[in-house]
Amino acid sequence: MNDAAPAQLDTFSRRTTKLAVVGAGAVGSTLAYAALMRGAARTVALYDVNAAKVQAEALDLSHGVQFVPEATVVGSDDISVCADADVVVVTAGAKQRPGQSRIDLAEATIGLMRTILPPLVEVAPNAIYIMVTNPVDVVTYASLQISGLPARQLFGSGTVLDSSRLRYLIADHVGVAVQNVHAYIAGEHGDTEIPLWDSASIGAVPLLEWARTGPKGAFDASVREEIAHEVVNSAYRIIEGKGATNYAVGLAGTRIIEAVLNNEHSILPVSSLLDDYFGISDVCLSVPTIVGRRGVYDQLQVPLSDAEYDGLKRSADKLRAVARQFGF
Ligand SMILES: NC(=O)C1=CN([C@@H]2O[C@H](COP(=O)(O)OP(=O)(O)OC[C@H]3O[C@@H](n4cnc5c(N)ncnc54)[C@H](O)[C@@H]3O)[C@@H](O)[C@H]2O)C=CC1
Ligand SMILES: CC(=O)C(=O)O
């Protein structure tokens, strides 16, 4: 009998992936919880400057590991807790106060990234970096320059969350399962974002076709306008009510982590560096993008109406201007 066989089998059957979450606040700790629930990684490491908070979050999460796929949770105010992570998700930084826009956080967040990223890259040089802290598109662009990482290796959560809000509203409007709605929000994760109606579909039916042939008024321009308005303003409403958004972003972030760690080549609207995307360059924003173990692969050239193209360009111009304002 070969004594080595069971141990070897054990080694190979365990997932050894490590997720590091930087910032154990509302978003970071909820994301860690969602990642544990879904068994996204074998080790979940939390890093935060607030030692008492990060240790408490890690302990609380650890007490629940009996009930989730096997995992280990560690938390520390020492950045080396992130060492050799496969994925690093950055959620550290100030959150919006009611009435503040995401862009209002730019100066503070960029300053924070200058402090956090160099030591992070030192301890986890091969990780895929997913930026969540707002304003996420500008932060992603600045972070690429601060870190010196290749554009495929560092990207932002972008409009994955906004697209899930859009899909939820469309599904609710027509009474179908949200999983059967395929629709993306593109551009800024913020006030200039735009729904890509031209490429949206419900099941196999193009959404604009549904608008023509479905129940009267199903998706006429005023309904589309109302839904788009609701998506843009969702975060403001939630922040007004409870001070932060955390559950949906935790799940959206986990979805991106899974796409990376499982090398899914899934199409997700993450925020990445554009280089001649329909003529748009030198800015990070969201378009439907293939995501896998090496991070960002191709950005899909989806069909765009003239209005959608103009909206995307407006987002790009705004985000570039904000980045320039801070010397990037
Ligand atoms: N991209 C997206 O879809 C979303 C982004 N956000 C953004 O995520 C960020 C975090 O939001 P919350 O978790 O609600 O804020 P929070 O205030 O609850 O947590 C932030 C955490 O960052 C920590 N932190 C601050 N400086 C740090 C440093 N130098 N190193 C490590 N940790 C540090 C704080 O101690 C705190 O625990 C905000 O910028 C918010 O706007 C929030 C929701 C969605
Ligand atoms: C806060 C934020 O960026 C969001 O919930 O969309």
Task: Tell me what you see in this structure.
By secondary structure, the chain is α/β, with parallel strands linked by helices. Helices cover 44% and strands 17% of the residues. It has ten helices and 16 strands. Helix 2 packs across helix 9 (247-261). 47% of the residues are buried. The structure holds 1,4-dihydronicotinamide adenine dinucleotide and pyruvic acid. Pyruvic acid (PYR) binds at residues 96, 102, 134, 161, 235, 245, 249.
Give the arrangement of secondary structure elements.
Layout: H1 4-13, E1 18-22, H2 26-37, E2 43-47, H3 51-62, E3 72-76, E4 87-90, H4 106-123, E5 128-131, H5 136-147, E6 154-156, H6 160-174, E7 181-182, E8 185-186, E9 194-195, E10 201-202, E11 205-206, H7 207-213, H8 221-242, H9 247-261, E12 266-268, E13 271-274, E14 283-286, E15 289-292, E16 295-299, H10 306-325
Parallel strand pairs: 1-2, 1-4, 2-3, 4-5, 5-6
Antiparallel strand pairs: 7-10, 8-9, 10-11, 12-15, 13-14, 15-16
The chain binds 1,4-dihydronicotinamide adenine dinucleotide and pyruvic acid.
Summarize the structure.
Its EC number is 1.1.1.27. The protein is α/β, with parallel strands linked by helices. 44% of the residues lie in helices and 17% in strands.
| Annotated CATH homologous superfamily of the largest domain | Lactate dehydrogenase/glycoside hydrolase, family 4, C-terminal
Number of domains: 2
Number of strands: 16
Order of helices and strands: HEHEHEEHEHEHEEEEEHHHEEEEEH
Q: Pairing-aware structural class of the strands and helices?
A: alpha/beta
The CA-CA distance between the termini, in Å, is 63 Å
Number of helices: 10
Topology-level CATH name of the largest domain: L-2-Hydroxyisocaproate Dehydrogenase, Chain A, domain 2
